[in-house]
Structures are given as structure tokens and as C-alpha cells.
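Hi there,

I know you've been waiting on this one. I reran it after we fixed the sequence typo, so this is the corrected version. Both the input and the resulting structure follow.
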Amino acid sequence: MSVQEYLDKHTLSRKIEDAVNAAVRSKTDDPVLFISNHMRKAVASVITKVKARQILDSKGIPTVEVDLYTNKGMFRASAPSGSSSGMYEAIELRDGDKGTYLGNGVSRAVKNINEKISEALVGMDPTLQSQIDQAMIDLDKTEKKSELGANAILAVSMAACKAGAAEKEVPLYKHIAELAGRTNYGLPVPAFALISGGKLAGNNLAVKEIMVLPTGARKFEEALQMGSETYHHLKAVITEKYGAHGCNVGEDGGFAPNISSLREGLDLVKEAIGRTGYSEKIKIAIDVAATDFCIGTKYDLDIKSPNKSGQNFKSGEDMINMYKELLSDYPIVSIEDPFDKEDWEHVKYFSNLGVCQVVGDDLLTSNPKRIERAVQEAACNGLLLKVNQIGTVTEIIEVVKMAKDANWGLVISQRSGETEDSFISDLSVGLATGQLKAGAPCRGERVVKYNQLLRIEEEMGDLATYVGEDWRHC
């Protein structure tokens, strides 16, 4: 399109004249700035360019970053990545060339954005999120986004969402809420990772994570303070018991002392909480990730201990009894993936006991079909939502609605391979999920999420609501 054709199409001559006249009437001290701002509002924004590149995530592994341009500016987003991919989740596209980044490069996904997705989206209205996402889904034509790559599609979808918020001149969380048809927001309870095990750390702890939830805080700012203070008290506790080398951290920033017992880890966290003086205000959550140590139908909690592995298998019933004992001894309110991803029998039984929030991660992989089955069979009562397992903002909104309709708890979650993008913070507020799992209160790619929530709370002022005790049903 030529310049003249563009001017004619958007009737810019008339709009420029109107802007000049408005500047004269306003008697502004800066007519150029006034006219510029007037024109930005007068001309509807469209996507003018989509440019992708390969960057590194927090594990030093390549991921996709996107710059999406409109005539309002440039909007950037990047896709996180997990340590493993389930068979039921959307597929991130990797190059597979072992000679470059050990096969983990994403140049194919980047090329798909620069050559295919960009062409399809240029000229679209960034506020029409569902149309943008559908255009990419139609272009991909596969169920799991394997042609273009879920990492490519997600990064573009997130960038478009940011552009849509800018076009509407509203905060990102508010734009997301409007896309979901919501009118209420809520600052989530943060699930701070304090001790890491499983695939996240090199210690002998089979269980993946021990977290704390400051449900008794009055504001998110106070919740963040509680999490940070508990983290540093835990560092002192670990140093006293195991020495400074026990304070090495896992991939999400949680401490990774060389413990092999879940109880040992829980005792450390309980002592740290006691030292803070917040004992009545902080609860504990654990991510078991039982699929990682399930062998056949048995569970090997010593799988990471070479001298003990295979000697103390637990049945599903044994695991249930263990959880009951832990729930009576510690202030645990949430257990994630207590059984293998295909062990529907035991997770249903345990969930129906109603003793705590039972969160599906590997069980569900944010997959609508798996979520629908779990709802029908009452297999759990909480959803761990990982944005890269789905691939578009529109589909994220849809699965959140499914979970809320089922009266489930909702946890928006980070990945082990994170970036400096704080999108999930606005997502958690806009969708009022109630819980945000972003790792430890340390490391830049983790705290950027928490710091964004501080800014949102400050921006909302008196309208800000920290969900606190209503963390499951906000």
C-alpha cells in the first residue's frame, strides 16, 4: 500500500486537521505532543510487524522471544519451557540439531513466526485476541501445535495480548479480565518454593518441591515480605544443620540441602516458619510430582538414593496413609500430583477425602480433555496451569473457566526454564486465579513475577484485593 493509499484509507488528512484544531482550542503549551497524542487515539491500531528471535531461558536453553509492532509501539513476550514435556500437552518446536545447543535450538520456531505467522497477522486488530489466536491455530492445523510450535504461537499470543491492552489504554490484567468477561480482580497468594528436590535439584529428595503460602497476609506486599523472611530464616536453619554447602539452590531458586526424606524437609520449613513469628499466617504446599518416581504401580521415594533405591516401594494405599500422617503433623493445605499421571484410581480416592487441595499437573497438563475427565470423575480439585502447555491466551481463558465452573482451586505456574517476562502475574490477577507459583523469592526470572504483582497492587490502590484466606475460591 502506498503512502497516499494509506492516507486515503484512514482519512488521515481530516484527522490531522482535527488534531490541529483541537490543539488550538486547548491552548496547549506543547502542540506537537498534543497533536501526537490526539492522532494516536484517532487512528485504530493494527499489527504492522511480528519479529522473533532466539534467546536463552533461565536454564541457559534457547527459547522464543517475540517483538510485535503496532502503530502504538512495540510489545515483547517470551515463552517459558519446562524440564520435561508430557504426551498430552502442546508441543514446543526444537531444531533437533545436536551440534547446536545440544539439539535444543528454536530457529525453526523463530522462522515460522518471521515467515508464516507474521504474514497471517499483519493488519489485524490487536484487541481481537480470539481472532488472532484462531488465525495461528488455523495456520498450524495440528491438534498439539506441532507444525508451528506451541512456543512460537504462545510468544506471539502473549505479545498480542500486551498490544491489545495498550490499544485500549488499560493495564494488562484488566484487558485479560475483559477478554474473559470478568469484572473482579484479585492479587493471588504466592506459593514460594523453599526446598527443591526431584528433577529440580541434585539432592536425594524424590519429592519435587516444598512451598509456603502466606494466606494470612493482609496485602500482597505483606505476603511477599513473609515469603522473603521465611526463605532467609530457612537459609540460616539449613546452614546450622548442614553447613553453607546445604544452601545450594535448585532450578527454581529453592534450597537443595542433601536430604532424602520429605519429613526432613518439612521439619526444616516448619522451623523456619516458627522463627518468623508468622506461624498462624503461613501454610505449606508440596509438589510431589509422583510420576517421576513411579515404577509400574509402585512408588520409590528413595529413587535418588543409590544405596536405598528399590528397597522400600510404596503402594498407592501406602502413599495415601503417608499423606494423611503428614497432613496431621504439618500445616499442609495443598498437594500437587500425589500420584502417577495415569493413577486415576488413587488420586480420585484421595481427592474425595476432602482433606486438602489436590492439584493436577502431570495428571492434567493443562489439557482441556484431561481436565474435563477429571471434573467428571472428581479426580482432583485444583488445576496447575502452565501457559506453554496450552499455547494461546484464548485457550488459557477457556480452561480457567472450566476449572472455576467446577469450583476448583487454580494455580498459575512458572516453568523451570523461565524468562524475564512477567505475563503470568497479570494473568493471575486478571483471571482471579487465587494462587501463583513463581518459584523462590530470589533469582531475577522468579522475582520479576512477584515484583510485578507489587506494582499492580500499588496501581490499584484502594481497589486492590489480596485473596488471602479465600485463595481457593476467590
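Quick highlight: The two ends are 49 Å apart (CA to CA).

Best,
R. S.
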